[in-house]
Amino acid sequence: MKTRTSKNIFRDLGFQPEEAESLRIRAALMIVLTEHIRQAGLTQKQAAEHLGVSQPRISDLIRGKIDVFSIDMLNAMLSRLGVKTSIRVGNKKVA
Hints:
Blueprint: H1 9-12, H2 17-39, H3 44-51, H4 55-62, H5 71-80
């Protein structure tokens, strides 16, 4: 038996649609940011200095503390790394 998913793990976990979408976006941005830091071989201290945040903020990022980051903050940090983000908006497909 197949289980139907919403393609948003947070929605599947029971979050309301608006919060689930925000969490999905923040998680995606955090993954990209963390990968860039790792690929650059930066220590948490170096990453913090480069991104203009404290080392504990980088620790929170690496540890996946999604609740302490806004989409705006994550986007600003990515921008400081030279990563361009884009937004695609569209209608949901109606089943």
